[in-house]
Amino acid sequence: MWQQLSFMALVAIVFPLGAQPAGPFTSKPPQLVDVVLTDKSKVRFQILEEKLQLKTEYGMLEIPMKDVVSIKIGLRISEAEEKIIANAIADLGNAEFRTREGAGKLLKEFREKSLPALKVALNHEDGEISKRAEEILFQMENLIPEERQQLPPYDVVTTKTSKIAGVLQKDTIQAKSIALGEVTLKLDFVDLLDTGNREEENLAKLAEPAPTTLTTHQQHVGKTFVFKVTGKLEGGSVWGTDFYTLDSDLARAAVHAGLVKPGQTKIIKVAILGPSVNFQGTERNRIVSSPYQSYPGAYRFVK
After folding, report:
1. Backbone angles phi, psi at 240, to 5 degrees
2. E strands, 187-239, in order
3. How far is CA 33 from CA 36, 108, 164, 236, in A?
4. What is the pLDDT of residues 229-260, one digit of tens each?
5. What's the confidence (pLDDT) of residue 5?
6. Of 296, 233, 229, residue with least CA distance to 266
7. For the chain, where are the E strands, in sequence order?
8. Closest CA to 141 of 120, 112, 109, 117
9. Between 258 and 69, whose confidence is greater?
10. Beta bridge partner(s), residue 243
């Protein structure tokens, strides 16, 4: 039942018999992911799902796929599988030798899905069941990788800003590859989906300490810089709204723009602009900016 997966096995699992590859890709490609299977083989797909439904202890969440960095798939056991495993555990104490052997074989075929029930069965009141459960556990723990033995009963979705535990409400994800066309990924056979979409991590490597102002950047018109900015309420002056004079206090302007809170540190991208006019003064986020007619250089925040 649970055999070692290879790339060809994946094809058999996810590509319906007789199905035809989908048409050409759209001009805007779907989310790219590296799909790591339970045997550690890896295949790259384009994810066609726009949103994921994740049931958490705090309620149902709808997560845009474009915000997902990775999805670690937990132990997934359906109600039907739970019943089969429970019946097999009970059959370990059956008077018929053939039934006991068949139950043991079935539990091994369910691999890591059987482990929770087998561990409970170690303390079963029927000595025959507990003894056989111990024997099967010993055999399976030598066959199943340790990380697969420790799977939690929930999935973990990592986004650009959060890590959320819950249970994905679908057992499959629609995907597409050049070789296979449109396919249905069965999450039973998936260990990890990794988009590699780690913009925050990549920006953090490029970030420089934030200067007080950007007056020294006047010769870099058209360039974008990445700074590590800690927001503040007090300090230098701010001129403008949405785009600011180069001599505006960067940390206060970032608070004014709503990108960072006072005392909060974030990685922020800033684009350098040329001579600008009509800087508007406004009050935002407890910061009052002033108007200014013209200045030889300006900047704006890149969101």
Report:
1. 115, 175
2. 190-194, 208-209, 224-230
3. 9, 31, 19, 45
4. 999 999 999 999 999 999 999 999 999 999 99
5. 39
6. 229
7. 31-37, 42-47, 51-56, 59-64, 68-72, 155-159, 163-168, 172-177, 181-186, 190-194, 208-209, 224-230, 240-241, 243-245, 265-273, 276-279, 283-284, 287-288, 292-295, 298-302
8. 112
9. 258
10. 241, 300
pLDDT recorded at residue 31: 60
Give the separation between CA 74 and CA 155, rounded to whole angstroms: 5
Which helix (H) or strand (E) segment holds residue 109: the answer is helix 97-109
* Amino acid (one-letter) located at 5: L
CB atoms within 10 A of CB 47: 22
Q: Contact 176/64 with Cβ under 8 angstroms? A: no
Q: What is the pTM of this model?
A: 0.56
**Better-scored residue on pLDDT, 279 or 9:** 279
The amino acid present at 42, given as its one-letter code, is K
Q: Give per-residue pLDDT as tens, 133-181.
A: 999 999 998 888 888 888 999 999 998 788 999 999 999 999 998 888 8
Q: How far apart are alpha carbons 226 and 171 in whole angstroms?
A: 40
Q: What is the DSSP letter of 4?
A: P
Which own/partner pairs from 210-213 qualify as long-range (CB within 8 Å, at least 24 positions apart)?
Answer: 210/250, 210/251, 210/268, 211/250, 212/236, 212/249, 212/250, 212/251, 213/246, 213/247, 213/248, 213/249, 213/250
Average pLDDT over residues 9-30: 39
295 pLDDT exceeds 50?
yes
- Buried b / exposed e over 101-121, threshold 16 CB at 10 Å, is eebbebbbebbbbbbebbeeb
